[in-house]
Amino acid sequence: MNRLLLVVSAVAGLGGCSKKTDGPAPAPTPAPTPKTVEPAPPKAPDSPDPKLVERGAYVAKLAGCVVCHTAIGPTGPDFEHAYGGGLEMPDTFGTWRTPNITPDKSTGIGSWTDDQVIAAVREGVRPDGKKLYPIMPYVNYNRMTDDDAKALVAFLHTVKPVSRVVAPTKDLKMAPIDVPKPANQPDVADDPVPHGEYLATLMLCSHCHFSPDPKTFAPQGPDKMFSGGLAMQLPMLGTGTLYSRNITSDKDTGIGKWTTAQIATAIKTMTKPDGKMIQGPMVFLQGPWSQLDDKDIQAVAEYIHQLPAVTNKVPDATFKPIAH
User: Fold this and answer.
1) Is the model's pLDDT at 7 over the cut of 50?
2) What distance in Å separates the CA atoms of residue 244 and residue 63, rounded to the nearest whole number?
3) % of residues, the chain, pLDDT over 70
4) 207 phi and psi, to 5 degrees?
5) Helix (H) or strand (E) holding 53
């Protein structure tokens, strides 16, 4: 009997521990709302390496990029829109216009990849595969090293974009020139003559100072290189015809009587040994070339001074500058 009472008491005690609820059951606790994951902000483009941009700006000075790719107005070059193209030049082989090479995406080269810009500069090939006329001196720029080409592109990325549509150059009487893939031959900077050869190539000395074939306007051959005779008109500066000079070491028809120091002075100041100013396209190059390192100017002068002599009497100019 006592055992039965204990069992009943235990069961009753368990029942008394249960909580009696008179109202409805509580609502279930809602699940936590998942946090919205915000997309990561787009990665900002890497800042260009200042040293790379600085070298690229120097390469652009060597190559005279701003000289050709800047329009000339009534008062002179439109440097407010530098590199925006629009320079128009009537020439013996037709009228050519320089394109906009600023990073403007609609009218410039802002949508081109780095490799596409380098291919245009060194191989004369546009992104669509079309060849550029060799008035764009890719034959010379083919010699540009990979490092200098990359530096040049880095610099062009920093140029102020210019929105300017330039009419394409068409129907020039000159055929495109096929050039090999750039060999990336190093610049021997510690040896003046090969270093001067590299710099002179980028400075386009052979692009103007050659004897052209009268039918194709192409150089007649390596034996005539640097011997001058290319006819040029510069209506924005004057009337008549100029001829590129013979800059070989020939003492009678070239500059063989000039010293290395006199050649260096002419490159940097456009002043000839007789005190007269050089005329022609080199006048426009005085700005960028005057900013080159003296050591580089000296190397170019040493290279030019040792060029083999080529006898070629260039016609006298009929050019008459516009009086201001």
Assistant:
1) no
2) 18
3) 82
4) -70, -30
5) helix 50-63
The tokens of 161 are what? 């974009």
Q: Which amino acid would we find at residue 194?
A: P
Give the list of residues 6+ apart from residue 24 with CB closer than 8 angstroms, or none. Answer: none
| Cα–Cα dist 17/315, whole Å | 123
Element (DSSP H or E) covering residue 239: strand 238-239
CB 236 within 8 A of CB 319: no
For the chain, state the CA radius of gyration.
35
Distance of CA 290 to the CA centre of its chain: 19
Q: Among all chains, which residue has been given the structure tokens 């005539």?
A: 224
**How many helices (H) and strands (E) in the chain?**
11, 8
- Measure the N-to-C terminal CA separation of the chain; round to a whole number of Å: 137
- For residues 249-264, one letter each, b for 16 or more C-beta atoms within 10 angstroms of the residue's C-beta and e for the rest, the string is bbeebbbeebebebbb
Q: What is the pairing mode between strands 94-97 and 88-91?
A: antiparallel
Q: Are 102 and 109 in contact (CB under 8 A)?
A: yes
Position 272 confidence tier, pLDDT thresholds 50, 70, 90: very high
Measured at the alpha carbon of residue 85, what is the angle toward residues 145 and 77, in degrees to the nearest 5?
105
Average pLDDT over every residue of 44-52: 80
Cα 93 from Cα 232, distance rounded (Å): 10
Tell me the average pLDDT across 169-195.
Answer: 93
pLDDT band at 33 (very low <50, low <70, confident <90, very high): low
Per-residue exposure over 301-314, b if at least 16 CB sit within 10 Å of its own CB, e if not? bbbbbebeebebeb
The torsion defined by the Cα of 170, 176, 182 and 185, in degrees rounded to 10, comes to -110
Using DSSP's 3-state secondary structure scheme, residue 55 falls into helix
Token readout for 224 is: 């005539």
Predicted confidence (pLDDT) at residue 236 exceeds the cutoff of 60: yes
Q: How far apart are CA 252 and CA 289, in angstroms?
A: 27
